[in-house]
Design a protein that fits this description.
With about 170 residues, the chain is mainly alpha-helical. Helix content is about 75%, strand content about 5%. A hairpin with a 2-residue loop joins strand 1 and strand 2. Helix 4 packs antiparallel against helix 5. Keywords: Membrane, Transmembrane, Transmembrane helix.
Length: about 170
């Protein structure tokens, strides 16, 4: 399999760095795998609660294993194709980009956690707002909301890395 690692912008071609290729791999894998997860999770909405809870847990386990395997395979292929890039920690620019991207991802994750905590407080204070009245009849909704926050923060982090590698900080 041949992967073209240049992107053309007008008259110039820009070579992708190892870190940028790694961010693209993680970004695409995360969208694909967790996109499938959330579509399947929505399909479970409204089903029998006992069966849905079991199915949701199996789906989560399957997705986590799939994520580790797929990311490991693709990053392993990248490391084999570019052994010198895999051994480098990156230069100062790469470290700065990683730090800024982590910061953006942290903001998204923190916002998601605050929303989930707010939801939990509302459900504690106002028991009438129970999950049975929710438009999303998904068991363990709080866990899935936290998972969504985590995935969205990772996509933000990878996307920020890609954009900053392409167009600067």
């Amino acid at each position: 399999m041949y992967i073209n690692s240049t992107i053309g912008f007008g008259e110039t071609n820009m070579e992708l760095t190892f870190k940028e290729k790694s961010a693209w791999i993680s970004f695409i894998c995360t969208i694909g795998i967790f996109g499938y997860y959330f579509v399947e999770l929505m399909a479970l909405s409204g089903s029998d609660t006992g069966q849905t809870r079991t199915a949701a847990l199996w789906l989560l386990g399957k997705i986590l294993i799939m994520s580790v395997v797929v990311e490991s395979v693709f990053h392993g292929m990248l490391a084999v194709a570019n052994p010198s890039g895999a051994q480098m920690n990156g230069d100062e620019r790469d470290r700065h980009i990683e730090q800024k991207a982590n910061q953006y991802g942290y903001y998204v994750l923190s916002t998601g956690v605050i929303i989930v905590i707010g939801r939990m407080v509302v459900l504690e204070v106002f028991p009438g707002f129970d999950e049975a009245r929710s438009s999303l009849a998904i068991p363990m909704l709080t866990m899935h909301m936290l998972m969504f926050s985590f995935v969205l923060s990772e996509l933000t982090r990878f996307g920020a890395q890609i954009l900053m590698h392409r167009w600067g900080e």
